[in-house]
Design brief:
Length: 77
């Protein structure tokens, strides 16, 4: 049996894209949360509580997205 080189390439690209996407997802979630929380804190005068809350929400959303991405890629392999 000869291994299929095309499927190996697709698998390699999927794993590579996952490895590149994970750090960006982990960074973008809390950064977006910081901006949203900072804006709401200035608007409502609740500094710094909403900023902290939305940073935590950003970490949770990023973790959930990373888990979903890893699950999706591992199902294809």
């Amino acid at each position: 049996m000869v291994p299929d080189k095309k499927n190996d390439k697709v698998s390699l690209y999927g794993q590579l894209s996952m490895l590149v996407a994970i750090p960006f997802l982990l960074a973008v979630g809390p950064i977006v949360g910081w901006f949203i929380g900072k804006y709401l804190d200035e608007w409502l005068g609740t500094e710094p509580y909403l900023m902290y809350l939305f940073i935590i929400f950003g970490f949770i959303a990023a973790g959930k997205e990373v888990y979903s991405l890893v699950k999706r890629v591992s199902e294809k392999v």
